[in-house]
Amino acid sequence: MSGLLPDVPYRDYQVNAIYSFLQHDPELTFSNIVLQGATGTGKTYIMKKFFEYNPEFISVWLHPIELVSWKPLMQAILRSTQQKLKQLYPDIEAQEYDPLDVEDPYQLLTLLESVLEEYSKVDMKSNLIIIFDGLDKLQDLDASVLFKLMKFLELLPDEYNIQLKFVYLIQDSSILDRYASCLLPTIVFPRYTVDEVTEILILTRTNDLINSDAFRNCILTQVIDNCDDDQFCKVAMNFITLIIQAFHPYTGNDIDTLNDLIDFKWDQYIEQITKENILDPVALYRSTSKIFISTEDNLGDDDNDEDVGADEENNGKEVFQTYELSTISKYLLIAAYICSYLEARYDSSVFSKKSNIKSGRISYGRRKKKEVNPRYLAPSIFSLERLFAVFQAIYPVEFKTESGTLSSLREDKLIKANMEVFQNLAELHSLKLVATAVTKNIDFLSPKVKWKVNVPWEIINEISESVKFDLGLYFSNLHD
Amino acid sequence: MNVVEFAEAQKGHYKIYPPLKKRKMDHLSIPFVKLLHGNETITNLERRWELYHQLHSHFHFKVDDIIANIETDLKSEIFDILFNRKDSKDKECFKTLFLLGSDSSTRIDLPKSTEDLLSVLIELTPKESPNVRMMLKRSMFKLHTAAESDQQNLSLKEEEQNQLDNDIQENKDVIDEADYQDFGDVSYDLTFVENFKKKYGKNINLVFNFKDVDSINFSTLDNFLILLKSALKNQHVDISLVFNINTNLSNIQKNLKQSTIRLLKKNYHKLDVSSNKGYKYGNRIFQSFLDTVDGKLNLSERFVQFILDKMANNTNHNLQLLTKILDYSLMTYFYENPFSVFIDPVNVEVLDDTYLKLLTSCPTFMFFIEGLLQQNAPSDEIMNLLTNKNKNLEEFFVDFLVRENPINGHAKFVAKYLEEELNITNYNLIELYKNLLNGKLEDYLKRWPKCKEQLMNLKFEPVDTIFQELFTLDNNSGLLTQALFPLYKSNIEDNLLNWERSLPSLNKESHASKEVMFERSVGPILSELFKLYREASANINLYDFYSAFRESVQKELLLPYIDCLRKQDEELDKILEPNSDTETVDKITLALFMQTIFEFEHMGFIKGQNSKNYDFVEKCIWRGI
Fold first, then answer.
1. Around Cβ B92, how many Cβ atoms within 10 Å?
2. What are chain B's domains?
3. Pick from B100, B324, B288, B111: nearest CA to B206
4. Fewer CB near the terminus (10 Å): N or C of chain A?
5. What are residue A33's phi and psi, to 5 degrees?
């Protein structure tokens, strides 16, 4: 615990530094101060606390992330300064300037000068500290923004009684490297260690958790009356430690992510709490161990899990809707993938009926092994006819009649490109799973249009598995 | 140049509709033709047509109804999720709704704004969202206009009140206005949201409707969401996000940052809008079709299988496809089956010998007679049936006509049972129907563990009804496959090869001019050349191709045709004047050849010349596969 600020653990050095950089006397305070540290290292929290315990400082918070580009940032500086001063000194008759007049740094300067001049009537010299919370989150950040802000203060005359001071909170240390020559006073906030993270989370979240509605309901419904508050706290603390232990390899020391996970899992966790296991952490862990297995930070899977549980038997039926594509679409996509990643000159040996797929050199003829697996390269383009040819070769047609009978002669041996195929191709294109080589003014009817596939190996593999098509076979022996 | 013309000139491509000559119609306006070898009476034909029309319009009336219902169902569902569910969570998070399979046309209804709450719908299309700044600006602008118009409405009301009320109210108004001026600046960024409460004195409920999310740059979207997140810290702001997704969730998930996903996940709902997922609406349409045909028509197993196959092949427009197939099958049935007129039992009065003769040759009927023979039924009874003595056959037929189709009835029964007794809604009625037809209902129902115990109640033995083939929709000739899912290229190829089949025959028409006769004897040049094209290799040397073509043209047929044309066309005559016969033929064939080659190019048979080599054209095929 810091002696200077309560509720701020493990940050004594930083807090001391802030105290020494920020003084009441403008003469002694640096104009620009940088606080640098990754997200979740307590920069904002500490600054908030600092102003909370030192209310005599005048502070204004700006959030560059909301302001998007430098112009709104400049406008925000004027607007917030004006508002703050008006709020502090309502007695002083000051003229209002429209912040929207600020079109460039110079206008900001002139307007600010006149604002500050009017408020110079106050007795005491004091600082107005503007905090840029997350300056590097500004959307249109360029190298000159920070320069402009830094040098801006030097242009303001120092005889005014109100002096502006800027504090920048920055996450990315590489940005600061650009300004190394400016000798900005920088306070670095290192990441917390695991133990520190654990302690901080326990400190901040325990009360939250046991006061949550879900937990209260749980206690009421389960009629748990054998515990006191301390024991409830222990349950929550135990849960937090479990979360950290389980997900630390995934989250690192990122407090935000851990917080999110705690939120997600807590409801699930307390569902398992009963009167018997609330005092027995091991039993509780056993019954809830499932929730510590996956992070579950995906959107779709909840339903799928239920489906699998509900009707395992007709799993086979369900697959043909995976990825929400029809079978034809899937085969088209697979064909497109083959077209994009296998060279055209081997098509005849791979797909013709005469030579079945053989592994090894025979199937591709004598040649050198490729140095790079084509899957790692960008997809090459192909013409539509080739796609249809490959598609025809790989699409399995179900024969309804017995082979050898007369009626089997009437059936098509191969799928032909009919309306359905074209429809599905169009669908794939609008899903951006296949793309054309040029994107503008496409004339789909022209034979010159070249196509390419737009999905990575992982997805195509998943798709081909869903139709039980061994795509890997076509790509075996291509690389080591 | 006016605007329309200018826009026209900027187009990359044009559509030209050739003027269609209207084919001379018979004086009959009914497109049906007489069946029974042309012996069908006109009244029967008309009845058939009327009956078809009745059923068709009835069916479509119902389909429209169902589709309209989908819309309203959906709207209320969205409304429910967005505005009615009070979530206990007081954490800062978005209310997220993913509309899957949406075409972004779903409108979102807003609750009426109240004294202290203003709901604003902000729609963002991919075009409006090139970057975060523009997105923010646009949305804030929309919020501002909405707020202003709301304000105006309110002040109008207030003014009305003021006229009745006293001065105090006015005073208050003045104060209000002063307040507005304090925060009069409107910069289109989040400070507007922040100061909203101060300015308008209301809480806001922002609903962002992201249209066509897949086309929005994902990193932009991601940044925008992070930006919006910081607006959540204001107590008076509620933000709901609606994503119209037409790919799938995993696509979204892969493209957004994990932290954003977690943020969205805190309070999210999914809704499938595409109306083809799940079988609810498909079932309803199919059911209404069964109802429409009055339970009289059967669907053959092959036909049902066809529907299932085609629906599996088409993920996005399932309902339209289903309606289309059912429609078409109904039409063909009425078009080709003379017995269709008896779908309405009233029409039984027109039953006469021509129909009865056909009846006796029905396989099911013959089977029935065979059965009678085996059971040693009295022979005169059988003879009566076969010869329609004493109208025996007629009565027999009518007897079957008024019977309900047991399969349709049972399908409905099972569906109702599943839904009401067992609460199973994810069954596919079409698949169920198919299983009913081939007697495998039990296998189908076994999927649901709940059903296993109830199998006895739902048991069904398919029975052959006599004369059922007369009232069955089928796809036996592949007609539906051809008509609904035509093969483009092979159709063109077939027709080119057998042009005699597809062009109307001229034999009977005596009034055809000599010119047309000649033209026909030469045959379409396209198909002549196509025959050569078929034999050529993938790369065609144009000159060789031309020589072959010249040889193949039948000069003795071509020459009289040219002569005939020359008499009518002076210009042609002028060009060909000084030439001998061989030269004429050469000239004409060259012209025809060039014309045909270009047509081939447009038909997609050959690729046009590439810049390097003008001697060759390439076939639009892949290596002869």
1. 16
2. 43-63+279-471 (no CATH), 88-266 (3.40.50), 487-619 (no CATH)
3. B111
4. C
5. -130, 135
Does A1 fall in a domain?
no
The answer to whether A23 and A129 are in contact (CB under 8 A) is no
Q: Are A60 and A84 in contact (CB under 8 A)?
A: yes
Residue A27 burial (10 A CB sphere; 0-12, 13-18, 19+): exposed
Can you point out the beta strands (E) in B179-234? 203-210
Q: Is the CB of A263 less than 8 angstroms away from the CB of B266? A: yes
Q: Are A327 and A424 in contact (CB under 8 A)?
A: no
- Are A66 and B230 within 8 A, CB to CB? yes
A window 152-181, beta carbon within 8 A of B: none
Cβ separation A432–B191 shorter than 8 A: no
Of the spans A187-201, A210-224, A417-431, which averages the highest pLDDT? A187-201
- Please tell me the distance in Å from B438's CA to the nearest CA on chain A: 15
Say if CB A233 and CB A210 are below 8 A apart: yes
Using CA atoms, how far residue A179 sits from A144, A183, A185, in Å, is 10, 8, 11
Quote the tokens at residue B294: 């009055």
Nearest to B241 by CA among B216, B269, B272: B269
pLDDT digits (tens, 9 = 90+) for A8-43: 788 888 888 888 888 888 888 888 899 998 888 888
Evaluate whether residue A34 is within a structural domain. Answer: yes
> What is the domain range of residue A204?
194-292
Are A165 and A152 within 8 A, CB to CB?
no
pLDDT at B322: 82
The pLDDT confidence band at residue A399, using thresholds 50, 70 and 90, is: low
Q: Which of B259, B487, B623 sits opposite A347 (nearest CB)?
A: B623
pLDDT of residue B511: 58
Same domain, A185 and A96: yes
Q: Which two tokens stand for residue B195?
A: 């100061």
Residues A92, B335: Cα–Cα separation, whole Å: 92
- A&B contacts, CB < 8 Å: 157
Q: What is the distance between the terminal CA atoms of chain B, rounded to a whole angstrom? A: 51
Beta bridge partners of B207: B121, B240
The angle at the Cα of B331, spanning B325 to B337, to the nearest 5 degrees, equals 125
Q: Which two tokens stand for residue B148?
A: 């202003």
Q: How far apart, in whole angstroms, are the C-alpha atoms of residue B349 and residue B591? A: 64
Q: What strands lie across the sheet with B237-245, from one edge to the other? A: B117-124, B203-210, B237-245, B95-100, B268-272
Stated pTM of the model: 0.62
CATH of the domain at A152: 3.40.50.300
* CB contact (8 A) between residue A297 and residue B189: no
- Specify the higher pLDDT residue, B189 or A56: A56
The distance of B557 to chain A (nearest Cα, Å) reads 36
Q: Is ipTM beyond 0.85?
A: no
Inter-residue contact B156 to B149 (CB < 8 Å): no
Burial (Cβ within 10 Å: 0-12, 13-18, ≥19) of residue A338:
buried
Select from A329, A419, A422, A450 the residue whose CB has the most chain B CBs within 10 Å, as the one to mutate to test that interface: A419
Distance CA(A358)–CA(B262), nearest Å, equals: 47
Total of domains in chain A: 3
Give average pLDDT by consecutive 10-residue segment, chain B, 625 residues. Answer: 73 76 60 71 80 85 83 80 63 76 72 76 83 83 83 69 48 40 52 76 83 82 84 80 77 79 78 64 80 71 79 71 83 80 72 72 76 77 71 71 70 77 72 76 72 66 66 70 72 78 62 66 77 78 84 77 76 72 79 84 71 67 48
Mean pLDDT of A390-410: 64
Does the beta carbon of B187 lie under 8 angstroms from any beta carbon of chain A? yes
